[in-house]
Amino acid sequence: MGILLDAETRVCVVGITGGRARADTERNLAYGTRIVCGVAPGRRGQRVAGVPVYDSCAEAAADHRIDAVIAYLPPRVYRSALDDILAVGPAWVHVVTEGIPLHDNVAGLAAARAAGVRLIGPNTSGIITPGQAKVGFLGHATWLMSPGRVAVLSRSGGFTHDLAYLVSQAGYGVSTAVAIGGDAVVGQSFADLIELCEADPGTDAVVMYGEAGPALEHQVADAIAAGRFGKPVVALIAGDFLDDHERGSVFGHAGAFLEGPDTRAAAKRDVLRAAGAYVATSVDDIPGLLRAAGVPRNQQ
Fold first, then answer.
1. Could you confirm whether 161 is annotated as catalytic?
2. Which of 94, 161, 218, 253 is catalytic?
């Protein structure tokens, strides 16, 4: 079944005439995603792969029901464009954009919360419910993952592919894969999304990839310990080499940095393990941990 996205979700692509967005739109339509409209100021009347383009989300919403938005936005127009998106009230908006200034990001996330709209990202590669629909540039190599009952949640877009492939090759398959975003502050945390996984009858377990940095994994541990999430969680946490660096040192993503002792990779593993999660020391451990957790494989 999957979370957030399925074959019936009506998607609007903001920034649809840009090169990246255009290419993703074509591939995602071919996959089966129900992209009903696009937005690009000054381009009203154009079409991208048959999708009608409007000057604003308000104009698009007058002609189409919009359930969700995938946004490709230059950082300089992020806040004004996000206000236009939020005004039409989609269930969620997925923000691909990297390099949004922190103060604009925080203000945008606050605006989304006030509007009751889930914001995934920013700085994220996409969402896929295998066999049904996908947004962003996640899952273009569709052979990497097969439909199944294990959700994949990841800080890293690239690692989302790796984990989904691993889970699929091990015979479990993927219910939904979500790259939550690599910025220091993101709209939907792991804990937010595992609540959706808990409610999803098509998800039996979660495989999660985290990194040293903000304490998102501690929130997951709290949810498990409090009984708010009862399905198995298999977690892989990277970033041990940062222990030898000064506080504030960053590796890769803007959100992967040494913030303090409790946010080191080892500390996150300890907290998750104590709460009852299955903690991997390498990707090779993950299939065995799913077996140990009693997660059933796909019936072929």
1. no
2. 253
